[in-house]
Design a protein that fits this description.
The complex is a heterotrimer, with 1 copy of chain A (about 260 residues) and 2 copies of chain B (about 190 residues). With about 260 residues, chain A is mostly helical. Chain A contains 8 helices and 5 strands, in the order E-E-H-H-H-H-H-H-E-H-H-E-E. Chain A starts with 18 loop residues before the first strand and ends in a 7-residue tail after the last strand. Classes of the chains: A mainly alpha (about 260), B alpha+beta (about 190).
């Protein structure tokens, strides 16, 4: 047993990390080996047989970042948050510890507390897993007689329960409404096409011409992105002659091949 | 009881249907069918002579352990073989949504609660708490659900108008806005801004 | 077996879940709770001493007859019943957090586990292992979750007091202590474990 009493993942029989990745988006959707950043951190500490109360933050931070990269977790917010926390801790550990004899607040204390707490959760989870396994060896009666054709048993329903349920439903819907994203994609391709068409006719157009007549906010954003992309590619130049002056879009000088 | 009778007892208890002797033999292929039949008889006799509340019956070509008819009436009266009558959180939340938004279609309920509602709606219907009271105008003319008089009776309310904070809550319980509405807002925003 | 034990046996056989002594008493209100408890014990002993394939267990606040573990493998092999699907590590950790902190809000669960818990909470709720039992005082009045009787049934525990006691485990599940204490406990824990 490692010095920190690391417990292995109860549900995973394989020891090799296996990662489920949603192919097209690159987002990690499921990690079978680690249930979170604290789990990964405990694993690293366990491998190195590190005393949890005295974590060499610099080394562990580097290993954590490496592991996050190796496991393809670069896009998992929970892991990134822990990574940045470790990097911050690493920096704090480098600060001078004040005059000798003075009290020193160990910046690692909070992390240690969380790790110990989480370790306990894992310990209980393992116990619960074994308990459920033992329980599953006992079958309840498989055949259950159909309920008798009697008047149904009295339901218990009261207004307090109902109102509590209303509150729960409202609480659940408020959130998504407030953060609702307008699902209307920007049409950057269309804007690019429109600008290129204009520039094919004339060497120079104005911003107002580029966004077109009666633009919506979506048109404005699409055009802006299209222009930036064209400028990046060097297909068009954006020129502003004075501060807050109108932006002029200029066609790149025709290439010899054209 | 001998080990084979014990095994048979456990297997018949756990099985969801009558089990044939041939199926029972797969429990232990080294034991002959005759031995299985003998052990079944032994188990049956044990139940009878020892005065158990259950007995062995042969039905649909197989064996099954069932409660003795003498106790059926008492158990039915106590309704121990029914699921607990308490409404689950999902049922309560669905019922609450319908109570304040009725008549309301399944799609809107699912939109509000964020989960599939088919199973819960069926249960609530079986329980007599909701009923279909019409069809909506939307595509596919969806069924619309309302609460029943029995629902009011359970709450001890004379009518729906007596539901607490009816107006306030029916507004609060609206489904998240459909995309079209949001877009209109966006258009208004652009106009106001230009 | 006496008539009361027979009645109890029949009732427990017929019930789809653990039955409490109070529910059993509705079978015969003239009989005291103490007499029911005595008869349950008698039935339990009968199963044990007579060598039955089933046994009496106490879980989720009630009593249930279940098959003995020794026969599980044979019953599964014969495809007469099967074990429930195992819970994932994420589900177990979330359940462990809720079991000890209940009622507890999502933010606290996420703080302890270090990951977003929305999906797992929904799954656990749909499987009937947790339920919303109130709202917290914090900003936004967050929903608070607790475990259900089905959770106890899943683990085969009579009640929540049968979970390993927090002090047996360590500091972790008690209120946060001053850092100095934590460090001392941590040191003791590490020593004991190594």
């Amino acid at each position: 047993m490692a010095a920190i009493g690391f417990v292995s993942d109860p549900s995973s029989d394989s020891s090799a990390p296996s990662i489920g990745v949603l192919a097209d988006s690159g987002f990690v959707v499921e990690l079978e080996s680690f249930t979170g950043p604290l789990d990964l951190l405990l694993h690293l500490l366990g491998e190195e047989r590190i005393d949890i109360a005295d974590i060499p933050i610099a080394r562990i931070a580097d290993q954590f970042l490496k592991a996050v990269h190796a496991l393809g977790l670069n896009q998992a917010a929970d892991y990134l948050e822990m990574a940045s926390r470790l990097v911050r801790l690493k920096a704090q550990m480098l600060l001078p510890r004040g005059a000798d004899g003075e009290e020193w607040d160990d910046p690692r204390a909070e992390l240690v507390r969380r790790l110990l707490e989480y370790q306990q959760i894992k310990e209980i989870a393992v116990w619960m897993h074994q308990q459920a396994d033992r329980r599953s060896m006992r079958f309840a009666r498989g055949y259950l007689p159909p309920p008798p054709d009697l008047p149904p048993p009295p339901l218990t329903l009261d207004l307090v329960d109902l109102l509590a349920a209303v509150e729960r439903v409202i609480a659940a819907i408020l959130h998504p409404v407030m953060h609702r994203v307008v699902a209307r994609p920007l049409n950057v391709e269309g804007a690019t096409l429109r600008i290129q068409t204009l520039l094919a006719d004339r060497a120079e157009i104005t911003w107002t011409e580029a966004i077109g007549p009666r633009p919506t906010i979506v048109d404005v954003l699409s055009t802006l992105l299209a222009l930036l992309e064209l400028a990046r590619r060097g297909t068009a130049f954006l020129i502003q002659t004075e501060a807050f002056g109108p932006v002029v879009i200029v066609r790149e000088s025709p290439r010899p091949a054209d | 009881m001998n080990p084979l009778a014990q095994l048979i007892e456990a297997a018949l208890f756990a099985a969801p249907r009558p089990v044939t002797v041939e199926e029972l033999q797969t429990l232990d292929p080294d034991v002959s069918l005759a031995e299985f039949r003998q052990a079944i008889e032994q188990l049956r006799e044990h139940y009878d002579f020892d005065g158990h509340g259950v007995e062995m019956v042969e039905m649909a070509g197989g064996f099954q352990i069932v409660t003795r008819p003498a106790f059926a009436a008492a158990i039915e009266r106590a309704q121990l073989n029914q699921k607990p009558p308490r409404l689950s959180a999902a049922m309560l939340e669905t019922l609450a949504t319908i109570a304040y938004r009725q008549p309301v279609g399944r799609a809107e309920i699912e939109e509000i609660r964020g989960v599939n509602a088919a199973g819960v709606l069926r249960t609530l219907q079986e329980r007599g708490l909701i009923e279909v009271t019409g069809r909506g105008e939307a595509l596919g003319r969806p069924l619309l659900y309302s609460t029943t008089p029995q629902f009011l009776e359970l709450l001890g309310l004379p009518d729906l108008a007596n539901l607490p904070r009816a107006e306030e809550l029916s507004i609060a319980l609206q489904a998240p806005k459909p995309i079209d509405d949001v877009d209109q807002d966006a258009a208004a925003f652009v106009e106001a801004d230009s």
